[in-house]
Amino acid sequence: MALPRGVARTGDMDIPARELENHDLIACKKKGFKKISNLKKNGFKKISTNMLEQSVVESLGNQLRLGAQMGAGASSLEGSEGWGQTSLGDMPESCVAPVLLYLDPPEICLVARLNRAFRGAASADCVWATKLPANYRYLAALAAAADDDSSSDGSVEGNGRCSSSVATKKEKYARLCRPTPFDRGTKEFWIQKSKGGLCMSISSKALAITGIDDRRYWSHLTTDESRFHSVAYLQQIWWLEVAGEIDFCFPAGSYSLLFRLHLGRPHKRMGRRVYDSELIYGWDIKPTRFQLSTSDGQHTTSDYHLDGPGHWILYHVGDFVISSSDELTKLKFSMMQIDCTHTKGGLCVDSVFIYPKDHQPEECIRK
Length: 367
Description:
Pfam families: PP2
Oligomer: single chain
Structural class: alpha+beta
InterPro entries: F-box-like_dom_sf (IPR036047), F-box_dom (IPR001810), PP2-like (IPR025886)
Number of strands: 18
Number of domains: 3
């Protein structure tokens, strides 16, 4: 990730990047970092201050990333050529912060262990402001409301709360990495620890399921295999229709929507996980149709024969793109198998997941 040209983010303020460049480059040169002179000796006679800074920062970022992965101390993180006798431990905090912009959050937390300067820079708002989602204030407000509700119920002690107006951006990032329930606990969102991308899960209890109140067809099962500890189980039915919708301010980007399903009723027998395969039928005759649409006109349809009995499988419905982080987007999604020439049964509906498009969940995905 390249540094922004001409402007640097510090807290909630935009300041000229030139002030940071001059100070940091001078500090780096005084501390014995010769990378710039090496570039000039190798034929780069005409090179701008921005290019010099970016070269230094990228080089240091690579050194830090390698050191963090190897668990090296500050004294061992010296360049292979031209670094003299000075180690990264001698860098001023103001020179460290621009380097950390090139690292992912877990790497920032690792290099924070090197010394006091790195620890201070790793907590700076200007570093974590670049890692937070663009609409983090909206997400933080939802997290604060959830924390307040939990606190009033006496279910949490208040650690890691997001409601304080003086919380640092690092603390806000850490809080948003924890799941935040909303809509009476039937939905959750969180951000990825590694990249800060928004993820969401929508419980089966938040979905409109045809016949859900008729015990001849559906029942709710308590299970620890769901993040909501409950799934909807279909005994048998002629007409399957499951639908849901949500209004939310998603950070700009591309997302995938998936249904998490399981063929067979999972349970424990003699301490082992098993499922009832004889109660699974009707899913191999006709495909199940999945649909997704957005309020700005995006639409996608996918057809799958449900398979993989005994395993939780994520069925990829489709992708959608969010262009603005500040606008509510309505999503509508559904799955249906309405061929009434045969019955079907033995299906668990857990939830609907929304992930950044480039994120690969651990569970098996059907595409």
